[in-house]
Amino acid sequence: xxxxxxxxxxxxxxxxxxxxxxxxxxxxxxxxxxxxxxxxxxxxxxxxxxxxxxxxxxxxxxxxxxxxxxxxxxxxxxxxxxxxxxxxxxxxxxxxxxxxxxxxxxxxxxxxxxxxxxxxxxxxxxxxxxxxxxxxxxxxxxxxxxxxxxxxxxxxxxxxxx
Length: 162
Description:
By secondary structure, the chain is mainly α. It is 58% helix and 0% strand. The chain has helices at residues 15-39, 47-61, 63-70, 84-95, 103-123, 133-145.
């Protein structure tokens, strides 16, 4: 006979600690999925596409966990998955293709795009997107890596007007 639902609280000092343990486990699962995809990528595969596909696939397969991790205003505790920075470094290194001078900013832009693909598909599943999430990822990566980023274009004309 299973224990009472409240029995899980006996193992944690507080509800906050319990919630953090659950979120840490889900975050670790996401990171492991992306790292495994990168580690298993075929020779010559576009590793940014591989990382994005793995991120998107995990998120769409774990919608509740994804929403808890990324669609709440809660501050992320320092405990969030010990190997998270390792994955972040891998994505930043891959994002050098999009912007060799600002790879961290390029990685954040990619993550923002991947998050948008996931979030909109989770919340607007009745829409016809005209392409799969993986096709969207390929287009995003291709667009961001087509031309290395240069200085931001000015919105002003030569005479100073806008």
